[in-house]
Structures are given as structure tokens and as C-alpha cells.
Amino acid sequence: MKAEIIAVGTELLLGQVVNTNATFLSEELAVLGIEVYYHTVVGDNPVRLDELLTQAQDRSDLIVLCGGLGPTDDDLTKDTVAAHIHHSLIQDEQALEQLNDYFSFSKNKMTENNLRQTLMIEGGRAIQNPAGLAVGTLVTENDTTYLLLPGPPNELKPMFKKNARPLLEELFPQKEELLSRVLRFYGIGESQLVTELKELIDHQSNPTIAPYAKPNEVTLRLTAKVADHGEGELLLDQLEAKILSQVGDYFYGYGDENSLVEVTVEQLKKAGKTVSAAESLTAGLFQSTLGDVPGVSEVFKGGFVTYSEQTKEAFLGIDPILLEKEGVVSEFCAIAMAEQARILSGADFAVSFTGVAGPDELEGHPAGTVWIGLAEKGKPTIAELQHFTRDRRYIRRSAVMKGLDMVRRAVDK
Amino acid sequence: MKAEIIAVGTELLLGQVVNTNATFLSEELAVLGIEVYYHTVVGDNPVRLDELLTQAQDRSDLIVLCGGLGPTDDDLTKDTVAAHIHHSLIQDEQALEQLNDYFSFSKNKMTENNLRQTLMIEGGRAIQNPAGLAVGTLVTENDTTYLLLPGPPNELKPMFKKNARPLLEELFPQKEELLSRVLRFYGIGESQLVTELKELIDHQSNPTIAPYAKPNEVTLRLTAKVADHGEGELLLDQLEAKILSQVGDYFYGYGDENSLVEVTVEQLKKAGKTVSAAESLTAGLFQSTLGDVPGVSEVFKGGFVTYSEQTKEAFLGIDPILLEKEGVVSEFCAIAMAEQARILSGADFAVSFTGVAGPDELEGHPAGTVWIGLAEKGKPTIAELQHFTRDRRYIRRSAVMKGLDMVRRAVDK
Q1: ω before A207 within 30° of 0 (cis)?
Q2: Residue B211: strand, helix, or coil
Q3: Where in this chain does the record put each MoaB/Mog domain (chains A, B) (predicted)?
Q4: How does pLDDT run across A142-158, given as a tens digit for each residue?
């Protein structure tokens, strides 16, 4: 099974956009046991794309194309592939229905060119787009399979996972099963994790261990290649137990599509507890991150953004004289904010964030100095001093992750 | 001047690394007036790389290769290119000296394979590496020029800028300058924008017009190719004026690195006004987005996250009986939230968000139904009903963008 990925778009050749789709698709295809031999980027030019298809069909069983399914005249991928394999373009009824629904609901004006997005290649299978209007196609001609996906990553990714991957699994079944399990860690860096697990990583064979660093967390993907499902699960269980015996304190959950906020909300739900917040440097990012989780209203009712000294006094009733004396980058301020937010909201827990997002220093403290408070009903309120690095965005995001971890550990107790 | 970029490395084909080098090099080459027609990624495989070189030499004047200059056995780019053009590899004395200095300073043990990094292709010019040990080469054979650079971006970038770019400028002197300008639009979709500008886009030549859709906004990049800088600016001014005469109502700012929130904060600063918010479905995302902008404390002091009916009453003092009667997905609720947030915070403006983030409907309204309120000192408070689509995250982000646009327009008046 040889595959290649062709991204179509002049914006890629001009260096305006990074080809993250090729990276995503390569990772996904590797899991399906499909080997990728080439990535190519070509501009919105049907002649060069057609030449490339001629080469590709000779060397690959599967050609994944991304980009060029949109409404404008330079979106030529569908037309070019259809002409190349001598198929025509036909209307996909489900995509048309989705398009009509979108325009009738959003009240936006539908222009004629939008209809181009609902066309698919005749003889293929339509790939519906859960996050946009352009429909894709999976079509096989002369032993080569063509998969057409849209260019925007926020459309391509859910579309591939939900609608294209199952069709590929059906079309190219694997002889050996690939079982994988993702372990998620917070509070330990990739290099430290790899050093702690050096012995296991150096002697890995089956299952394999692949560490991956994400902003503020690290994941380990354990992958076993087995003939039998039960045997695979057993191998993964054994390896996981070894890993957790060494770095279990940083482990918080499983799965590629999971996150620290989802685990935290889940634990609050299980415990029947609620959380509130008072945010200074994070300016609502903690609460907004909670808001990303569907059904969070069960555990989150609201909170405060107190960016200035005035609002810390006006919204939370913090004594301005003490605040002036202790400073806003202080344990006092973090504890007062968390306690007041908890009392005013009536929640079981409240987190507070106060410190320096940067780029400038504040009260003599460098950017990245952050106090995080945690108030819990019936317990003494605590605050932790953190020193985060990098830029303003990263410092604020790092603070939110630490706040979530503090809540998760408190609920867990 | 046709160019292409070949990245060599199996890690790229496995999806472990994103090909940011191609993006960087494309942008740099565009500025030099060198047009890039293809990006290709191939694994650490000399046979496939050699085949690719055969294709590339027929279609390109310049082939930039990145990756495969390192010390290990799978670093084969130098050997493969040298063999392809029938040149040999020779020792570069400067690189050897740098290597010896490095190992004597760092006290690390130098292994034999490190010497491979100091070899260059005979007949070419060495490209010294200011951030690593692998030397590059620029070599021309049969009218095709080959530029070999290392894979790690932190080596490739300074090496290109400092040592490769001057050689390319010398080899391919530019007759014409490339001037570009980015216009940013909010409130109009890509398909509608290109329909409105169809006449201009169909007849574009110099400057060119390139539309690009981002989540919730569209940008147009205007690019002029000219012998004279002043002439270029004039061409861009004329085209911009034509574009804005048609779709100027949606235009909000310039530049690739700009955003609606930055423009909004800038306008508030200029006007000496402040803004607050009360957020239900957005749960702090509007305020957190403001918080991303350095120096926002001048115009933003704080606000409220009122996710439940209780907190709308407790934090904002909204009448629970009226709220029960009108519902939270209502004009009444949006107006009450915005007004109370403005009064309690003492700000000049306050925005409110209340509605359905989904996935489930609320009070009989489907996901995406959102009321956005805007209170302004001394003016009647207004609220706009919006219907956003897609998933929970997108709906919340769309609402924030609309809220920013409402503030920007109100300040602008």
C-alpha cells in the first residue's frame, strides 16, 4: 500500500500557509498501515496538477488530494481529477441540502459559485463535510484510489476522521491489527519524561512508545501490532503499568481527543461539585476553556474577570488598602480573589489567577510570575507561585492548565 | 526563474514533523522574485531522491534541498546530489575548523561520522552554517542550480538569511520588485467577496489579487511587480480604492499579522474609551481575547461571566422573574446584561453574549442562536440577533468576532 499526498494551493507555494494537512494525514495514514512515500504541493494550476497525477498514478495506490474544493474559480482540484480519470462531476444531494440549510439558517446571501462546492466525482463515494460546505470524493480508477478533501484544516481534519477514515479502513483492510493507546501527562516536560523512561524507550519493539510534546503537556502513544485483539490489550496493559510505576504522578487521562479540561469537568460532574473563578492576567481564559466543554453548565455557573485593581475591589470586595500594600502579584491577592469568587458564586471550588502576562514586568516581577489560588468549601484557601516562560499567550495558557490541574487534584482527593 | 523545494526526511512522511522549511523558503524566494512551482517531500531514500532530481532538473532553474546533511547513515542528500550531477564530495576547510573548535570547546567526544558534515560538493560554493555543524553547497550544473541546506529550521533559517540569500541575489539579480499589501475583511464570506469583486479578479494582472479565507474573516493580498517602488505603491493604492469602493463596509484593517481584536483595542485606545462585558455562552472568551493584546489594561478593566440564571441575578442584578418570562435567549436578557455590566464596571462600552452554544438546543432555539448586546454611555442599548453555524467552539468564536466588530463600529462613529 503506497500512498502520496498532494496539496493544491498557490498560497502554500507563496509561503503564506504551512502545509499542516500533509502532517496530519501522514500520521493518520501511518496508523492505518498505509505508507506515505511523497508529499507534493502544487499551485492552483490544472496543467501542472494533471502532470503530477500522471506521475502519481504510476507510483501510488492511494493519492490523497487536499485543497481546491472551494467555491472560487481557482478551486480546480475536482475538475482536474475528474477530467484526468475521464469521469464527470455530479450533484451530491446531501451536500446541496446542507448548503441550502446553511444559507437559510445564517441568512447570508447565497452566491451561484457556492453550488460548485456540492459537486462530487461520478462513480465515487461522497465524503460529507461536517465543518464546511465543500463535499469530498473517494473514487477508484485503474487500481488507483483518489481521495479529495478540502484545504482548510478545520474542515479537513473532522471530515477525514469521521467520514474518510472508515472508508479507507474498509477499502484497505489491515492483516495485522494495530492497537494503540494514548497516555496523557501534565506537569512533566518531554525531555524529562523521555529521560525517566529511557530504559523502556531504548528497548521498545512491540508495543512501540512514541512521545509527543504538545503545549503544556506530553502524550505517549503506545502501539502494538498483533494478530489478536486480546493479546494486544494485554501487551498495552503491561507496558502502561510499567510506565505509570515511574511517572504515574503526572498522568491524568487517556486518548488523543481528550484534554485536561475535559477530565477536570468529568471529575467535577462525578463528584457533584461546582467551580468558579476570578481571573486577572488570564482575563477569562480559564472560564472560557471550561466553556469549550459541552454540558459544563452542570459544574460551572459563572465567575469574574478582574483585570484592574478597581474591579478587584468593585466586583470582589477586596480591601483596596491591603491590595495596595501587598500588591496584585501576591499570595494575599490570589487567596482573596479565590475566596471571594467562591463565596459570591456559591461554588464548591474557586480558582484565581493574578500575576504578570508580559511583555512588561509588573510591581518589579518579571513576565511569567503568576500566583494561582484555590478556594475549597470547608478547607483553608491555598495559593501557588508559578514561573512560566515564553510569550504572553503561552504564559496565560500555562496558568490556565495549572489551575485546571489544581482543581482536578483537589476533586480527586 | 522557476524554483522548487525538496525536503528530504522520513520523519516528514510519518507526520512527526511539519515542513515549515518549505513555507519559510517560499516566502524568502518570493521576495527575491523567484517563483516556486513545487514543494516535494521524499524519505531518506537515495533512489527516490535521484528520480525526483531527474524530474526537477527538467522543470526548474533552481532546486533547493533541505535535510539530509547530518552525520548519520540516513543523511544522504549530499551524496545523492553529487552523484546525480557527477561531481565528487570534498573537504570544506572552514567547516572542519568550526567542527574541531566546537568539540574542543564543548568537551564532547567527536565521533568519526561528524566529519561527513564538513563535506561539500566539488565545484560549488560552500554555505557556512552559523547555528550548526553541517555545511551547505550552492552548485550549478547544466543550467540547473542546486542549493543544499540542513533540515533543522533553527539552522536552515539563519544559514539561508546570512549566507545563501546573498549568493542567490548575486546569481539571479532581480529586475523587478515585488510589493504586497494585505486587506482584512470581517462580515463577508469568501464566496460573496469574490463575487462582488468578480470583475476586478477576472481582469487582474499586475497587481494580482489573492483572496484567502480564515475562520470568520477573509483577507485579500494585493501584489504588484514593479521596477520602481513608488510606482508599485501607486498601483496598490489605485487597486485598493477600487476594492474598497465595492466592499469597503467590511474592511477593518491591513496586514498579515493583524486581527480584529487588535484593531478594536487600538481604536478604543485612540478614543480614550473603555469596554467591559457580561458573557453567558462565550463564558469569558470575549474578555480573554481582549487579554491577548499587550497593553489592553488601558481599555479593559474587567467584567462578568454569567453562565447560569443564578449568576445573571447574583452578579448583575437581573430580575429573575422577568428573566424567567423572557428567557435567557432573548433581546431582553442581552440588553439587561450589557447595561448592568457597563454600569457595574463604569466602562464606556459593554458587550453581552447570551444564546445557544450547542450541541443541544435551549428554550426551543437551535444551537447558534445568539443575542449580542451593546451598551454605550449616553446612548440606548441595542442587541442584535445572530445565527451562527458549525460546532460549539466555532459558534462561540463567531459570537466574539461579531461582538468585537460591534464595538469597533460604535467607537468609529
Answers
A1: yes
A2: strand
A3: 4-170
A4: 999 999 999 999 999 99
C-alpha distance from A253 to closest chain B C-alpha (Å)? 22
Complete domains list, chain B, with CATH: 2-171 (3.40.980.10), 177-254 (3.30.70.2860), 260-412 (3.90.950.20)
Do B305 and A307 lie within an 8 Å CB cutoff?
Answer: no
Contact (CB, 8 A) for B332 and B320: no
Residue A23 contacts B where some CB pair is shorter than 8 Å: yes
What pLDDT digit, counting tens, does each position of A372-385 carry? 999 999 999 999 99
Indicate yes or no: CB of B302 within 8 angstroms of CB of A305.
Answer: yes
The pTM score is 0.79
Q: Give the torsion sign (CA, A269, A274, A277, A283).
A: positive
What residues of chain A lie within 8 A of the CB of B390, using their CB?
131-132
For residue B333, give the C-alpha cell: 436578557
Which residues of B, range 106-135, sit inside 8 Å of A by Cβ? none
Q: Would you call A344 an interface residue with chain B, using a CB distance cutoff of 8 Å?
A: yes
User: Could you tell me the three cell numbers for A305?
Assistant: 474577570
CB A98 within 8 A of CB A133: yes
Residues A37, B43: C-beta atoms closer than 8 Å: yes
Chain B hits for A308, Cβ within 8 Å: 297, 301-302
Closest approach of A292 to chain B, Cα-based (Å): 6
Helix H or strand E encompassing A349? strand A349-355
Among A183, A200, A199, A139, residue whose Cα is nearest residue A164: A139
Burial of B360 (0-12, 13-18, 19+ CB in 10 A): exposed
Element (H, E) at B297: none
